[in-house]
């Protein structure tokens, strides 16, 4: 059923690549115009490369290729004024916002480096404060019946994963932020329910993006190789990725998350709010007490 988002405008953070780009493309396919936002520069504590201006340009191209309008802006979700400027530019061009996807996130794991409290600060500033800033600048523009979608994390729900001591302060900041998002979403849904605005969270398992596919994460899954002084590769780590899910898969794809995003953005989910929906291949049920439980 095509055209589920005809006439709607979606504001998406972390849109230059990964899950954010997948949301933008999937929603454009269903008729939405897109306001795409990303930081497009490195955060010092984050060991793997973040998106670039070229990545954001590629998202813009992909949306336009589908015949939809797009406003692409570089903005840091930690800076509310930058987000507000992006919102105002998008609304000036596209007229409104009906859908918000607060997706931007980082996992600044230590990756063998000295532990630094700033990694916790950076993780929580992007993964939690960034969500709060996104909602703060978009809610005043939302008409009744809009949809807000927040990216959480199944791993963040499972103790002993991102809060593993080897992950360092950044891993703990990521997990704490993603768990706090659960309560934040439930609070916000109650305050926006009188306006028929729904607020839901999607909690992915391992997802085939740069946050998973990097040398630091490979080392976390293969500490035996690290102890031998070897750099773990994707081929070394992927069999271990598969152990995380109940289904025999190493990860889900960004489009798997985007498919749920389209549903939550559409009128088909008009009475679904305050939900924590896992796209996790059964990982939380497999590890309810954590990997060591």
From TrEMBL:
Domain of life the protein comes from: Bacteria
Keywords: NAD, Oxidoreductase
InterPro entries named in the record: NAD(P)-bd_dom_sf, SDR_fam, SDR_subfam_1
Keyword Ion transport attributed: no
Molecular function GO terms recorded: oxidoreductase activity, acting on the CH-OH group of donors, NAD or NADP as acceptor
Family: Belongs to the short-chain dehydrogenases/reductases (SDR) family.
PANTHER family found in the cross-reference section: 3-OXOACYL-[ACYL-CARRIER-PROTEIN] REDUCTASE, SHORT-CHAIN DEHYDROGENASES/REDUCTASES FAMILY MEMBER
NCBIfam families cross-referenced by the UniProt entry: PRK12826.1-3, SDR_subfam_1
Protein name according to UniProt: 3-ketoacyl-ACP reductase
Organism: Mycolicibacter longobardus
